[in-house]
Amino acid sequence: MIYDEPRFRPGGDRFIEMELGDELNFDLNFLVHALTARVREARLDGIVELLPNMASIVISYAPERIGYDDVLREIGALHGSLGSLEDVELPSPLYTFPVLYFDHLTRACWEDYCARIGEKEYDPDLMVRLNALESRAQLARIHSGTEYWVAALGFYPGLASLIALDPRCRLTAPKYNPPRTWTPKGTLGYGGSVTCLYPARTPGGYQIIGHSPVPVFDLEQRLRAFRDRLALLRPGDRVRFVPVGREEYDHVTAQVESGAYEHQVAAYAKFSIRAYHEWLATLDMSVRF
Amino acid sequence: MGFTVIKGGLETTVQDYPGRKGAFGMGFPPSGPIDHWSFRLANVLVGNPPGAAALECAFIGPVLRADRDAVIALTGADMKATLDGAPVPLWESIAVHAGQTLALGSAVTGARTYIAFAGGIEVAPFLESRATFVIGACGGLEGAALKEGQSIPLRDVGATAPSRRLRDGVRPPSPAGGVWEIEVVAGPNDDWIDEAGKRRFLTSDWRLSSKSNRVGFRLDGPDWTFTAKATDKAPENGEHPSNVIDHGYPIGAINLCGQTPIILMVDTLTLGGFINPYTVPTCAWWKLGQSRPNEIYRFREVTVAAAQAERRRIATLCTEDSLAPGEQDGGRA
Question: What's the topology of domain A2-83?
């Protein structure tokens, strides 16, 4: 549920966790980001950082400048002043990523895991089976059939947690146990009901079903999209995946390597939850992808 | 020009305090020294601002050759440091001449030694901090622990007088007998643990695992028991009682991963799907930084206000006022 009143609990002497609800729910996550935006705008003295996530916000503060009770009062007041979410519109750039589904890199990663750590069903086949799909092709159609919402950012720098906006395209996947010791940068992963692009070569636990040559994170800020940032995606942004063949994948890979690649983005798009709710009401839930 | 790394040691990193701010929401933890009390005093001893970039040396220290005259100070763990073979005192600033070799060995007490250099280490800041974040491969010297052959650049300062010492009672107490009393604040997810579980946590001995590092300190101890919030929850929270919908992680949080508590430290992952029933406040991090595998933690619950008061007390000790009388004025020649 979404709580009527937010619940605050301390995390030591300079963090507070603010819980706004206890479920995975798009409206709840939208509330999290609407409130985060409001708190940032308010520039409260002593509030250092905000970590918005699915249903909660972790607030770090400087106890030398603001007391625990004052953080609760100030942020509680901002929460109370939000009004109806239906009237809130947030900036929401829409990025498009080319994806080679069931690619050679993630297949090699899975083979390496089987050889070194233990036998495991091929990730796309596991996802097809657990989601009662007909084929890998249907998995790719469903995965690429919706826009995704950046619900959270972090774990590892630049890692965006994406949730499907079209409820017909929601999939679930278990996590690796034990986890992988490495995952190729750019891997498309799925864990729980979250999908992501791996920002760097890191360990990982999500099922891996494809690869994009287009980076979401760049410490060296080489491509134009990274000129003013290290992490491309921010909470509240949207993402679309477009299946491509090997030829286009190779072409984009070469463009990224040469530094000429321009990320595909509708930069000034906005997101209104009222429009989203209206769109949801028009969906034919019996349509299969 | 500064010092050349002859041997890197086990994990010697450039850190500053309080580390990297403003990028937590992007997934960058703060990094910085774990024992920030000893770290700041090392800087005070050489006349630097308390947070200036200096070295954190874990368990086995480095061997460094001075390429110019410098004033340095060592604090924290005793690694039997020598300068051209002669013992070097801890908690005191010392002069090093060009060509001399500073050699640290294995920690005989404590776990982390801090080396501050008058002027501070002058590596390029990354996201406004010089702190090394090893798993993120950024900050510090080439985003990693020191390696043989690297040069540690120092900021040029006028000559700084050596032999500054600290007043009594301003530095962290010496580690006592392998048992540590660690302050904890209940929360943020203490309501997931039942009363018996809380009592067990606060009355049991917890053994520090050797699988501990700047990302997290893993503890071995009794099993946890849970309230209905953990066992009767929406399925998207996950299967195990310790699973929760992904949420942000406070630094110092005691993250319950299945039945294994891990104290999330300065290089932590910033979010995840496990609960944090208790949090170690910043005033107790020096104890984490100086504890060794297989030592025992006993946790003592304190209020937020008490933890903040102790944080303030430590901060007031990490200033020039803590230098022994008569030595503040002689600081700079």
Answer: Gyrase A; domain 2 (3.30.1360)
**Residue whose token pair is 């953080």:** A71
pLDDT at residue A115 greater than cutoff 70: yes
User: pTM for the whole thing?
Assistant: 0.95
Kindly list the residues from chain A whose CB atom is less than 8 angstroms away from the CB atom of residue B28.
Answer: 157
Q: Are B281 and B254 in contact (CB under 8 A)?
A: no
- Whether the predicted pLDDT of B329 surpasses 60: no
Any idea what DSSP says for residue A60? E
The topology under which CATH files domain A94-282 is Cyclophilin (2.40.100)
A154: nearest CB among B25, B138, B279: B25
Half-sphere exposure of B104 (CA within 13 A, CB side): 33
Taken in order of first residue, the domains within chain B and their CATH numbers are 2-166 (no CATH), 179-302 (2.40.100.10)
Residue B91 and residue B166 in contact, taking contact as beta carbons nearer than 8 Å: yes
Interface test with B, best of A1, A2, A13, A228 (most B CBs within 10 A): A13
* A12 with B136: Cβ contact below 8 A: no
Picking from A14, A153, A193, the nearest residue to B26 by CB comes out as A153
DSSP, collapsed to helix, strand or coil, labels residue B285 as helix
Candidate from B27, B187, B234 with C-beta closest to A156: B27
For the complex shown, is ipTM > 0.90?
yes
CB contact under 8 A, A156 and B189: no
Give the Cα separation of B61 and B78 in Å (integer): 10
From chain A, pick out residues whose CB is under 8 angstroms from the CB of B251: 12, 15
The pLDDT tens digits of the residues spanning B294-318 come to: 999 999 999 999 999 999 999 999 9
What's the pLDDT tens digit per position in A227-271? 999 999 999 999 999 999 999 999 999 999 999 999 999 999 999
